[in-house]
């Protein structure tokens, strides 16, 4: 059976007719009309009444004019869509431009934020490791460098020295001149310390008035001592701060690796301990750590706690040492001396605790009590008719430079009713040389009250003739060490010069520490105005001095606590003139 093959002629003809370009194809292409939309429009055109094929020889506008209304109506959505698409494209382009601009701005902002974050990070890192006031490394950075130095020293068999430094009596400057001046002084001290060490050394501020110096490579302890002495000498020169010439000293404690510790913590602790012993040794010096210092430090803390309890339990008492007129032998007054009555059998003198009281700040409440009690006792003697011309009270540099000192003096005088002219404030000369201008202001304020100013231990400090000339001083007390040396010719010459110096400035001369008749005789011949010492009268309780005053009053004598040691001689000394205040 033969197979018949049918060729799809009709199908091919229909495909050719469909593929033949429609007359409206150029229009559809120009308007970007989709194929599906084209078929719909062609169908509408064919179905419309009066539809006919457009003339291919005519132009597109002519063809469009020939289009029936229904075709144009069907075409309108396409034109609206094209317009909408054009508007949408414009809007999208505007959004794209805005998005691009925002992207550029955001990129710039991100770069700026990154740079600022890096700067802030660097600044924060610096602040974390450095002191903001002085710019020196702080404790954290010092500890890190100390640990590195110990590692290198272990590797190379070297020593590392650590110096703990404290500014002596810095609190006085803060209290009297304010924290602004104190901060500037700290900056000045920091600069001096930095300029006095090697580039490989580290100067750190621990806070307050404490500094630490790290010497990463030293051969022996003496090298560290020499470096400490260099620092002390550098800082001792006057600091001109805010119009004030400030004199400061340093107390330095030294510890060494591996001699005094194998880690950073132990080295810092031991250097701190050595620094406290430098303070106890008179300040303005350095001490190298020794194991025995730990026991002393423990004792020191025990004494500090006991002092606090003593204030609460009223264990402090005053003893009084008579002051005598060396010409007539009459009693001119008494000096109030602090004692600590720890028990019925234990009576401590100030030398055993006063330094600790100054270091821990207890000297202020203790000194305030001493001032008030001495004024009260003197007024009580006067109220009972006893002859006590003046009562003397020792005032430390810490008290004198404290902010409330003048107010405390006024309060003590007002509360007790004591005449200010009967109160003598005794000050060590070195304590008055810390800052001249505030010191002068305080001294003149005391003089305005009528209080007498006495320089204690004269000749042992660094005061000169200008000191006697410029300061409103009423009396000077020659130190006992000079009086005790009057048995030798150099000692006699020195005391004679001191007496002549004081008399030339119209100041009353008082000798302390008179213990032998020879010393008394020498001072009387040299016309020393007053004196005190064990030969004339030992310190005694208020009750004992009251009994002595009563005996003298009953006898009507000139007064002589030590017995008949005086042979009255004519007073050939000049009448003491009042010291005028220099013009302001």
Secondary structure: elements and pairs:
Blueprint: H1 9-19, H2 25-30, H3 35-47, H4 60-66, H5 69-129, H6 139-156, E1 159-167, H7 170-177, H8 179-195, E2 202-207, E3 210-218, H9 221-236, E4 239-241, E5 244-246, E6 250-257, H10 264-280, E7 285-288, H11 292-313, E8 316-325, E9 331-341, E10 347-348, H12 354-360, H13 363-383, E11 390-394, H14 397-400, H15 405-416, E12 423-428, H16 436-449, E13 452-458, H17 465-470, E14 475-478, H18 480-483, H19 489-504, E15 508-512, H20 517-525, E16 530-532, E17 540-541, H21 542-555
Parallel strand pairs: 6-7, 9-11, 11-12, 12-13, 13-14, 14-15, 15-16
Antiparallel strand pairs: 1-3, 1-6, 2-3, 4-5, 8-9, 8-16, 8-17, 9-10
Helix pairs in contact: 7-8, 13-15
